[in-house]
């Protein structure tokens, strides 16, 4: 049996040198999470390809197709793009991660980008390096289809699809109902994540104001960076959701627009929470810096006080160490005890003064 070349490798061919080996094509089924046909709110039985599914819907003149893709490459999504008439610019955006939330219209197709978020479990917010992980969902909405392209491993829609399969009344509203369910699902996750981040910030706030706490300003800045990542996912989504709720396109019927208004209200709540988090963390940074400055001032007062006390014996010892013959009480037998007594008395007096003033 001849050897199978590896991807991107080279294989010799006689004495003509090495030639590049073409990559092995990956079937579209490897990227399709699910492909389903819905008619009158019910999912039709059987397994469908994207071509068979859309033919079935258009033959019946009712229903719609829902296709879910996970991180497809350009070759695999091209077949779906040609079948459903997706715009090349929207397809290009769907292939690239790190898109901002947005809503664009291409002819009779809508293209929606939403950011998904996941709370990363950790032992303590004061030691965690990552709190929020983001992914992306791209949604193509047409008259008789909805296509979701997922980037990231935490933004799956399998559970949501099962819930919709059991809710034929919602699916009767068409593919726009699926888009609403997806956005509602994502925003509900926003609420859950912001609630858990709020608990983390409460823990950090308590430790910042606790005596002798070890929370550093760098750790608060790290938390602030995670909140900023969440903010980039939440804030830009407000405009697309508002446009869907206000009748931006006929692809969203009146019955579904009212649902989008509810999503917009929840998103406003999330946005207000995230903005409050940012302000609170800025306050905690200021409090931490002020606490550090106060601690440094306290330490400096203590150092200065002890330096002043130590100066007394140092000064007296320095005077009597000059090796002059005519120093006071130099040859008196009680001179040494007297000097020691004076040093202790002055040091004790300074200690009491500094102690009374709160420096020690």
TrEMBL record:
CDD domains: MtCorA-like. One of its GO terms (molecular function) is magnesium ion transmembrane transporter activity. It is found in: Cell membrane; Membrane. It catalyses: Mg(2+)(in) = Mg(2+)(out). The chain crosses the membrane at residues 303-322, 334-354. It is a multi-pass membrane protein. This is Magnesium transport protein CorA. It comes from Amycolatopsis camponoti. The gene is corA.
């Amino acid at each position: 049996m001849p050897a199978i070349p590896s991807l991107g490798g080279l294989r010799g061919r006689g004495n003509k040198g090495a030639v590049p080996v073409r990559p092995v094509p990956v079937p579209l089924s490897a990227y399709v999470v699910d492909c389903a046909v819905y008619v009158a709110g019910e999912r039709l039985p059987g397994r469908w390809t994207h071509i068979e599914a859309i033919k079935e819907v258009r033959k019946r003149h009712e229903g719609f197709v829902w296709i879910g893709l996970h991180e497809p490459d350009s070759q695999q999504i091209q077949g779906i793009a040609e079948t459903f008439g997706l715009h090349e610019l929207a397809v290009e955006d769907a292939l690239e991660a790190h898109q901002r939330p947005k809503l664009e219209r291409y002819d009779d197709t809508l293209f929606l980008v939403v950011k998904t978020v996941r709370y990363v479990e950790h032992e303590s917010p004061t030691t965690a390096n990552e709190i929020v992980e983001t992914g992306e969902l791209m949604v193509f909405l047409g008259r008789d289809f909805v296509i979701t392209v997922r980037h990231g491993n935490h933004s799956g829609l399998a559970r949501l699809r099962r819930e919709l399969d059991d809710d034929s009344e919602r699916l009767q509203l068409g593919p726009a109902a699926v888009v609403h369910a997806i956005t509602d699902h994502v925003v509900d996750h926003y609420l859950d994540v912001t609630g858990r981040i709020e608990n983390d910030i409460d823990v950090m706030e308590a430790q910042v104001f606790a005596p002798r706490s070890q929370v550093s300003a760098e750790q608060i800045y790290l938390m602030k960076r995670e909140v900023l990542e969440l903010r980039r996912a939440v804030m830009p989504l407000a405009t697309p959701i508002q446009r869907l709720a206000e009748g931006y396109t006929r692809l969203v019927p009146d019955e579904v627009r009212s649902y989008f208004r509810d999503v917009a209200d929840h998103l406003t709540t999330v946005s207000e929470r995230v903005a409050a988090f940012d302000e609170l963390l800025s306050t905690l940074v200021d409090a931490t810096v002020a606490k550090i400055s106060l601690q440094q001032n306290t330490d400096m007062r203590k150092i200065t006080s002890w330096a002043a006390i130590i100066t007394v014996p140092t000064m007296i010892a320095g005077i009597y160490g000059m090796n002059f013959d005519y120093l006071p009480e130099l040859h008196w037998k009680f001179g040494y005890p007297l000097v020691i007594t004076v040093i202790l008395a002055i040091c004790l007096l300074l200690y009491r003064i500094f102690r009374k003033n709160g420096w020690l």
